[in-house]
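Section 5.1 Outputs to date
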Amino acid sequence: MFGTPLRKDGVPDDPRYREGYLNAAALDRLAVMTGRSVGELQSALPNLRTKRLLNAAGGPAWDWPGTPAAVSW
């Protein structure tokens, strides 16, 4: 995965239905995993832009905050 989940009091929401937030180390790892540059990922996914990165220091960390709204297909 990308690193350590920040949410300790339960499981994060399903990332298929929510925006995920990463710290800089996790963003670097995602870039390597996808074969894309950090700039490409930040251009395509607004939640990965510098102003929206998590402030978690240390190794890769991520979070999918909130509860998703009902999804109907």
